[in-house]
Amino acid sequence: MSPTSSEVRYTDQHEWIRLDGDEATVGITKFAAESLGDVVFVELPASGKSVSAGGEAAVVESVKAASDIYAPAGGTVTSANSALEKEPSKVNEDPEGEGWFFKLKLADKGEFSKLMDADAYAKFVESL
Amino acid sequence: MNTADTLLRTPLYALHLELGAKMVPFAGYEMPVQYPAGVLKEHLHTREKAGLFDVSHMGQGFLAGDTAALERVTPADVTGLKDGMQRYGLLLTDEGTIKDDFMFSRLAGEADMYLVVNADTKVGDFAYISEKLKGAATLTRRFDRALLALQGPLAADVLERHSPGISALTFMQVRRATVAGAPAIISRTGYTGEDGFEISIEGGDAERVARVLLGESEVLAIGLGARDSLRLEAGLCLYGHDIDTSRNPAEASLMWSIGKRRKDARDFPGAEKTMGVQAIKRVGILPEGRAPAREGTEIAEKSGRIIGKITSGGFGPSLNGPLAMGYVETAFAATGTEVDLIVRGKSMPAVIAPMPFVPNRYRR
Questions:
Q1: What CATH number belongs to B59-141?
Q2: What is the pTM of this model?
Q3: Which CATH architecture fits B279-353?
Q4: How far is the C-alpha of B258 from the C-alpha of B250, rounded, in Å?
Q5: CB within 8 A of A87, min separation 6: which ones?
Q6: Strand B219-221 relative to strand B50-54, pairing
Q7: Using a CB-CB distance cutoff of 8 angstroms, which residues of chain B are in contact with residue A41?
Q8: One digit per residue, pLDDT tens: chain B, 364 residues?
Q9: Does A38 contact B229 at a Cβ distance shorter than 8 Å?
Q10: How far apart are CA B106 and CA B245, in angstroms?
Q11: Count of CB contacts below 8 A, A vs B?
């Protein structure tokens, strides 16, 4: 589960997306998980749901507040990480691994390529 | 509101930074919302051991003169308050709606009364009380004083080590004492539902006293995030959210704070309306499932008609589930009434529940 940087892209909303063939996995970054604090609930999209780039796709709630998770790229949801429903704390423990949210079949891989790579995202976080 | 440039700091500001707190603007102050442990751990630690809160942003002061005149602005029984006791009161507008809630104390052998009002409202409250009590009593601000809350089942053991004899206080008692050598006003009160103390000290003593208490192995620094989840589990109101100038004491389910003598005499602002039939009422709400319902969430009866709104809602770490309070039409206020909460456009079943959600553990 440790992808090379070339396969992972990041959004300015602090989602990560990893491409494996046609399928992409989406989650929130370590920075986002730390900012949110203790995650106590996640609402995941149903399989078959179509999402557009930047559109609301899931919800994550900490003790303090609810935050929307946006789809980094458009496509169709193929599965969701239902383990998070029982153990939402996985989002804090391993946000860029076991704490993934959902998988997507991308409509346009061009949308993926346009996103920030690891270096660009690291610089973006530093600038905040 | 103050901008980031003009935010005030409590005497513990430097200590908060040293402890790694995440600071946020709150009521015009830069306050710690959480420390590195995080809201969940801080909350559970307070219920299990003892937590230290900096609540120095709250408005402290002393009322001198004819303190009975305070009954002009509160429906609480002020004259009946005995020496060495603290009491909860509502500050009312002329119309009898809730301008704030506050604590007032009668210190043994002292003519002046000690008051603590909410942080966000303190400037307005003090001006309002001063104006209403003009000619009878004088209210002096002591916003320079610090206020620490030490809360949790081990709070008394800890404080006893630094303020010998203090554990003899019972719930709502107050006295002057010293803590780690610093002169203090200490009450056995709090905002968590746990046993605990609120400790008013000079600003200059605050950091030293806080370090002494944090030096005890049972004590963890607790931020405003856990303060909010603790008070919500305890069923306690947050001013500006659960109560405000649009609500009267009866709607807010705070009639217990009105003295019997005051109820009988109906001698407080808005008494006729407050003592009458209310259209809405503040209730506790337990969502089924795991999804929290936040402030502003609409409450519907099962037919779909909107009957109210949530005023505080979130996740209760000790309850290990979502919880909320809000206002519903009185016909739906009975414990056990089934309702729906409209969360992100979907109806989520919930039930009207008694408060507190987690049993109080005051030392009576």
A1: 3.30.70.1400
A2: 0.95
A3: Beta Barrel (2.40)
A4: 10
A5: none
A6: parallel
A7: 290-292, 315, 322
A8: 445 568 999 999 999 999 999 999 999 999 999 999 999 999 999 999 999 999 999 999 999 999 999 999 999 999 999 999 999 999 999 999 999 999 999 999 999 999 999 999 999 999 999 999 999 999 999 999 999 999 999 999 999 999 999 999 999 999 999 999 999 999 999 999 999 999 999 999 999 999 999 999 999 999 999 999 999 999 999 999 999 999 999 999 999 999 999 999 999 999 999 999 999 999 999 999 999 999 999 999 999 999 999 999 999 999 999 999 999 999 999 999 999 999 999 999 999 999 999 999 999 9
A9: no
A10: 27
A11: 43
Q: Considering Cα of B32, then B311, then B232, then B273, what sign does the dihedral take?
A: positive
In a 3-state reduction of DSSP, which class is residue B66? coil
Residues of chain B with CATH 2.40.30.110: 279-353
> For residues B112 and B86, is the Cβ–Cβ distance under 8 A?
no
The C-alpha atoms of residue A4 and residue B204 are separated, in whole angstroms, by: 54
Q: Which domains does chain A have, with CATH numbers?
A: 7-108+115-122 (2.40.50.100)
Interface test with A, best of B24, B26, B33, B39 (most A CBs within 10 A): B39
User: Is residue B52 packed enough to be buried (19+ CB in 10 Å), middle (13-18) or exposed (0-12)?
Assistant: buried
Q: Name the CATH superfamily, with its identifier, for domain B4-55+145-233.
A: Probable tRNA modification gtpase trme; domain 1 (3.30.1360.120)
Laid out side by side, the sheet with A56-62 consists of A39-43, A56-62, A66-70
DSSP character string of A4-61: -GGGEEE-TTSEEEEEETTEEEEEE-HHHHHHH-SEEEEE-PPTT-EE-TTSEEEEEE
Q: Does B342 touch chain A (CB under 8 A)?
A: no
Handedness of CA B301, B303, B306, B307 (dihedral sign): negative
* Burial zone of B285 (CB within 10 Å; 0-12 exposed, 13-18 middle, 19+ buried): buried
From residue B287, alpha-carbon distances to B125, B233, B291, B328 in Å are: 35, 14, 7, 15
ipTM for the complex shown: 0.87
Q: Are A63 and B63 in contact (CB under 8 A)?
A: no
